[in-house]
Design a protein that fits this description.
5-stranded antiparallel beta sheet, 3-stranded antiparallel beta sheet
Amino acid sequence: MPRRGFDLLVEFLIHRHRFLVGIAFLLTVLAIRPASRLAFDQSIESLYAAKNVRLQDYSEGKRWFGGDEFVFVAYSDPDLFSDDAQTRLEELANRLEQVPGVVEGSVQSLDRTLAMERLPFLKHRREELLDFSRGILLGDDNQTTAVAVRLLEPSQSPVTRDESLAQIQKIANEQPLPTYVVGEPVLVHDMFRYAQEDGEWMGWAASVLLILVILFFLRSLRSIILPFVIVQCAILWTKAVLFQSGMQLSMVSSILGSLVTIVGVSTVVYMSLYYRKMREQADRVNAFRQTLHVIGMDIFWVCLTTAVGFGAQLSSRLHPVRSFGLTMVIGSLFVLVAMILVLPAGFLMGAEGGTLRKPRGDRQMNQSLEGLAKWVLLHPYHVWITCAILMAWGVMGLFRLKIETDFSKNFRATSPVVRGLDFIETRLGGTGAWEVNFPAPDSLNDEHLEKVARLAQSLREIPGEDGPALTKVLAVTDGLELIPTIPLLAGTTEAKANHLNRVQPEFIPSLYNAEAGRMRIMLRAYERQSSEAKQQLIERVKTLAQTEFPEAKVTGLFVLLTFLIESLLADQWTDIMLGGSCLIAVMSVAYRSLWMGFVSLVPNIIPIVLLLGGMGWLGFPVNIGTAMISSDTMGLTIHDSIFYLSAFLRARRSGLDFPTSLHHVQSEVRQPLLYSNIALIVGFLVLATSHFVPLIYFGVIVSVAIAGGLAVNLLLLPLLLQLGERFEKTAPEADAPSPASSL
């Protein structure tokens, strides 16, 4: 933007501040209703790219066999086989069968299986029926039992998944014995539920905590109200735009409120601090005018680079990641719009309330940062060597990163879902439900069933750490073997199948689709095991299945969840490269110097590499939260570089030599940088209170990255600028502009 145009904009903001705040008020009122109607996408399929082979296999399996979204309602009863206990179990099964959203006739329980003993051809075969149920409906201790409930697809259910699971949980809570509701649908539902609930309240929690921080350091009511109003406007406008465009909040973008709060508050705090400094020498109008002239364009570039950092997620193949990127791009830009509309009135309207007091700790902080700046320039080789060693250590650690596939690790150990998993996996078998499906003839025959039985037996023999790796293998042949060969049935496979359909109508259709020409074997495995163990087991099952049936496919929720983080991580390196390249391009345009664009990004890559590398060395696995921090964090930490470099270029353009310019920079930006970064760090640490572990990781790691980014900027930027002085004559000879003077 030409200088004259920028001057006219500044004067317009000053003289039309009441009109601008009126527009902000009108937009906010119009946004309230659509923002409140913004929905939340809870589809596990959305966490995969549409063309992902595993997702396609999963979708085909659901189409052929109706899906396997089983929920288990489990408990232990020392008198499980008594008449009273069996009556309670029957009543529980009957109540669960009445829950809306449960597949009709799909409820399985031990009492219903044992009732088959009354059939003439199953008399005196109780042990076979118990073995048939073991690992699903009966534990090895003969005390633990579960009622298996199969849920309808959300699109086919008369009620939401929330309502179905809430009713199932209510029934479980009313049982006389401690009862747990477990299953992968519960895991997925709770993941989305925690993300949504935490996202809603953490935005307010971040606001309250940031208010306390600002009040402590700045001791100004106006400094509290302004950022709060701005971020609430930006959040409402963003939600309204998302609703009007037909989008939904995803699991990842559910933390929109807290992120926009954090970004908005830190930016407004920086501007407020600079205004206070100008206010020491001028009246409020001239102080505000000078603030806009000096750092107005810096604020623009800060919001733009934040949007660019998050915008790198738009290259992702995954819908929730793209949704997160787009949501934060809109939110970041709306922060800028809200600042333009609200800040002029915020600074210029009303009484200021007396003399502005200096922030707490101002003198001590200035002395500390001055000493740090002098030490850096006196010991440049110490800094360079230390950075090189740390970067090498971090890069090596990147190759040691492991992926977390124990889905229960996404929840706190004290959460109900983890306690339920522990109960099921220690007493009843694994909760991981999956399948291997393969081509089948249009009618059952002995030759095909022999191959099925052989494969099922091979799968049962796969060794695990403390026994079989698969806690349950269920094939069509298991049900047919319950039907004895008697004259009435003539021993034919077709006759056995017909009779089995009469006593267990759900059994064969859930495993064999004659019309589609596919059959499957249902599998259960432990959910709580390492990623390596899960992936090796999946590969082993696939190899055995393709030995008997070359076109066999291994799929199911267990498989999708195992490779979920891998799916999220797959395109993050692309996002990092794209985000870094775009940030360099933006800053090169801002400073009209490729070197300055490069310098602005380098100090902000180092903390990310060190953090992720440190996770690799320390053995912390990559989860949903840490798989997506890189480009986002660069977009946040580059703020420090923008303010630092702009102040340096202004000093050089004023004719100061290099050492004096650096001293001027330290005096101008160190206080605003420190306080705005404290606001950012405290805001992100609010995420550590989440019930959803990936959000905890995200909040803590981004907080550490921001602190590290500030430290590296203060240590490394002076040396990079010194290096640039030697190889590229920027200012004052080349008259390199700062962002405040050009767009």
